[in-house]
Design a protein that fits this description.
The structure is a homotrimer.
Chain A: H1 3-28, H2 33-55, H3 61-64, H4 67-82, H5 89-114, H6 119-140, H7 154-170, H8 175-196
Chain lengths: 211, 211, 211
């Protein structure tokens, strides 16, 4: 399997996984089937859309290939009919989100490097791809965005993207194993953050005043 | 009148109508004249801007032709001086929004087909064009977005876009009458939804828990 | 110093200044260092990113040149370690925001004119560049957006952009001094608005009803 295929399948799985988190959020808000499809699609393809738009890779990926949208719609419909089987839907949402986060951090950075951007920018593109879809999901559904909660979140996408960029672009290691290692490290960090409630020290000086 | 002209006039009317809904929302929030112009412009050209950006049709339509922005500014100023004459401004907003929704669903799909995208993607582009401007209006003004309310809303844009795409692209019927029929069906569905409070069954299993 | 260099340095200073306002907001919300960098970067490069995307100048400016992102990260880290020295952080935020607003209004309009858009659209591009970053900062941090507060705000960006466009494109005056004058007028208006709580009359007819 070539690196292009690995990236493609990681990305497709990531889209499906993020779409399911969007549909789970829709189920928590008791929306109808159209709301499920809408939120699932926003979440699944939101990050990649922003990445494509700011790099000028337009028309964006899901316009060139309808498979992506079909994946989101399928995930939404599947979740609509099975979500009641999941005992703790918010926990499922958090863990699937962690999976998608780790996948998109790596694929976003890889796509950035393929476009020939600098290493720093490739890392940022990976982070944007990984975090934007979930941010839209949370803002539209009036949830506190995961990126603003105290547990380590963005840093996991940053870590995965950084390992991939440093490993392939700077150390010139073979791309497929580096992609796998980057994904695993990223997911492991997020899993630890969820499990042990890991967080960075916050700015404690004093809260804001209104003047 | 050619199909291009019909699309142009439907689109221009849709922009003006959506701009007025934005200005009515600004009047409900008691903003100043600059706020009226800002919200009216966001609402009027927001959906088409997103459509152009993701399809790569940049510079976006209102940069290539200043008529669109002038239409929005004119609608905002007109509404600023006449909104007090409308007894029930929220009702006016809802019905004008329904009109714009039906127009943009058809024109968005038509513009998508002209760009050569697949039928499924053309339907999605129509739906995005029709719903995005109103969503921005509601988010910026802290209103619950119409797309998240229980009544049938997005489905109306989906219906209009689908009729146009199936009629012209798949059945190869003449485009002008199909555009008109698609617009009328879309508006009729939304009108019924407003009038009879039509809604799809929501996901009832149980509300979300915080864990 | 040529006009291109003046625009570049105004823009770089504006990005740094806006990034600091984002980091100050993060300090008021007691975020961690990653939150500081994230909000600072959104605020610093948000307006220019939207300007580049809708005019089709992609890849956007900070992808072509990593200096912009490094500036944002540096501003965020600097603020993280010094914000506790500022007695009244919200006041600092408001005044730095005024500085950035005046800078970006002029540079946004100048970049628009360089792309060959019409004068009206150049003024709008300047206004978007100046206001969008701050709007994203406020929405993400759950602050009431400055653009929706009663004091004169957007109009200051409109004024700076208009003076620059009218002076250089219509009256054909030399660009460097016009840019400086436009910046000073814009900042002076915003400073007066903050100091004397200047505002336009709001729409007073009556507040909105729910029907």
């Amino acid at each position: 399997m070539t690196i292009t295929q690995i990236i493609y399948w990681l990305e497709l799985t990531g889209v499906a996984v993020f779409a399911v988190t969007g549909a789970l959020e829709a189920s928590r808000r008791q929306m109808d089937i159209v709301g499920f499809v809408l939120i699932a699609t926003f979440t699944g393809i939101g990050g990649g859309t922003v990445r494509d738009v700011i790099t000028g890779a337009t028309p964006v990926f899901w316009i060139r290939d309808p498979a992506w949208v079909i994946t989101c719609i399928g995930s939404a419909v599947f979740t609509y009919f099975t979500a009641h089987l999941v005992e703790r839907r918010y926990v499922a949402l958090i863990w699937l989100d962690a999976l998608g986060l780790a996948m998109f951090g790596v694929t976003g950075a890889a796509i950035g490097l393929n476009l020939g951007v600098s290493p720093l920018v490739a890392i940022i593109l990976g982070t944007i791809t990984a975090t934007f879809g979930g941010m839209v999901r949370d803002v539209v559904c009036n949830e506190i965005p995961l990126i603003l909660r105290p547990e380590i979140y963005i840093t996991c996408a940053l870590l995965g993207a950084s390992i991939y960029v440093i490993g392939t672009d700077i150390l010139s290691l073979p791309r497929a194993p580096v992609a796998l290692i980057a994904f695993l490290c990223s997911f492991a960090l997020r899993a630890s953050a969820i499990w042990f409630k890991l967080s960075f020290p916050v700015y404690r000086a004093r809260p804001g005043r209104e003047y």
